Structure formats: structure tokens, C-alpha cells
Amino acid sequence: MEISVADIKKLREKTNAGMMDCKKALTECGGDMEKAVDWLRQKGLSVAAKRADREALEGQVACYIHAGGKLGVMVEVNCETDFSAKTDEFSQFARDVAMHIAAVNPLCVSEEQLDPAVVERERAIYRQQALEQGKPEKILDKIIEGKMAKFVSESCLLSQAFVKDTDKTIADLLNELRAKTGENVQIRRFARFVLGEQA
């Protein structure tokens, strides 16, 4: 199938991927633009996974202050090189993540960081709710797992839908930045402060 230069340019504008990658994506997907976007995203994910074991000690701490100085967030985002840390794209990502944290208030960065005691408490609550609703014992585990998946997606930063574009999660944004920079980018940690709130 012949892929037009116009389609390659259009896909490049959509994804910021290289011209040859765009051509390959369109060829692999029979010229279907949406499938080609997904193909490139998946490629970015697999490349990002290969980079995940590389050290990321550079980066920046971004801040977001909201509500007349009554709510503030600091987030540390790391990458491999000082060069990437100083780009506008990296800075914008860090600011967007800080603003997202201010708006959504996640408990932690990733599922691995969830406090096991919190997880067990939630699981017990969901079990009790299901029992009180008279749900059959044989489907309890399925119900609880579904509710736990929702709890994780709402509580962990990487799983949350991005407030400025709910079609993407924070993990999607992170993987897009990894694909663009060619580096291992990590959201290391964050702190959210509300004026007068007890620690």
C-alpha cells in the first residue's frame, strides 16, 4: 500500500514521532490514522519499558500554588540528563502533574506505594457492603476485585485520568514524555499542602 507524504506529516503532527516511524506505523496499520497513533503509542511504551532500569537522577521539582495561596503542591520528576530536564516540554509536564495533584489529591504515585493497611481496610469495607446487599458468596471476590481496581485507579497518581484531558492517564502522559525524550522519566514523589490542615 502506498502511504502519502501528507498522511505521514499529519501523523507526525499528531504524535511528534519521527518521519520513518510514522511511515512504518501507517504501513503496518494499512493507512488507518487512529490505529497508527495507537501503534506508535504502544511502541513508545515498549521502548519506555526497556529504559526503566536506567538511572534517573536529574530532573526538577515543580510547584503549583492554588486558591489564593491556600493549597500548594511540590512534585519531583526525574530524568537521565540535565538537558532533558531543562526542556520546555519537561517543565510543562512537571507543572501539569503538580496542578493535577492539587486538583485530584492522589494518595501516592503508584499502586506499589499504597499502604497495605489501607488496601486491606478498603477490601474489608467492600466485602461488608456486598454482604449487606445480599450478594451471593460465589461472586463476592469478583465484586471486591472490581471495586479495588476502581479504588486504585482513583487513588494512585499514575492510574488517574489527567484533569486537562480525561482520555489520558498520568501514566500515558509519562510514557509520551519518555518516548519523546528517549529517557527514563520518573515521577519520584510529591507533597500536597492545604493551609491549616493537620498532618
UniProtKB/TrEMBL annotation:
Function: Associates with the EF-Tu.GDP complex and induces the exchange of GDP to GTP. It remains bound to the aminoacyl-tRNA.EF-Tu.GTP complex up to the GTP hydrolysis stage on the ribosome.
Protein family according to the UniProt entry: Belongs to the EF-Ts family.
GO molecular function, one term: translation elongation factor activity
Database matches in CDD domains: UBA_EF-Ts (cd14275)
Native organism: Desulfarculus baarsii (strain ATCC 33931 / DSM 2075 / LMG 7858 / VKM B-1802 / 2st14)
Any one GO cellular component localisation term in the record: cytoplasm
InterPro entries associated with the record: EF-Ts_dimer_sf, Transl_elong_EFTs/EF1B, Transl_elong_EFTs/EF1B_dimer, Transl_elong_Ts_CS, UBA-like_sf
Classification via HAMAP family: EF_Ts (MF_00050)
Name of this chain's protein: Elongation factor Ts
Keywords recorded for this protein, A-Z: Cytoplasm, Elongation factor, Protein biosynthesis
Localization per Swiss-Prot or TrEMBL: Cytoplasm
Superkingdom classification of source: Bacteria
Residue ranges occupied by any Translation elongation factor EFTs/EF1B dimerisation domain in the UniProt entry: 50-197
Keyword Cytoplasm: yes
